[in-house]
Amino acid sequence: MPKVDTYVINLDSRQDRCNCMALQLRDAPQAVYRQAAVAGSECPDLQADKHSFYGDHDHVREKSLFCSNYKIWQHANSSEADFIIVMED
Q1: How far is CA 75 from CA 9, 36, 56, 89, in A?
Q2: Distance (Å, whole) CA 60 – CA 54
Q3: Which strand (E) or helix (H) includes residue 75?
Q4: Distance, C-alpha 9 to centroid of its chain
Q5: For the segment 53-67, what is each residue's pLDDT rounded down to a tens digit?
């Protein structure tokens, strides 16, 4: 059977959402990890892709979400999981 890990991105200031996700995933058969949402500056090794930053999007939040996902992939890369699931609260 393949090994699956689940990651949930959650803001530190939103404990209520973390509790809600924990309740929904409490019976999940796979490991579930919380990834704190981090600022884009937490990933200094990532270069900005200015070509994808267009329009009226909140680019600060986009970079933060990308960095949070990047942190998950770094962790998952060193795990034994065959598959991962990434969720946002």
Answers
A1: 13, 13, 32, 19
A2: 12
A3: helix 59-77
A4: 4
A5: 666 666 788 889 999
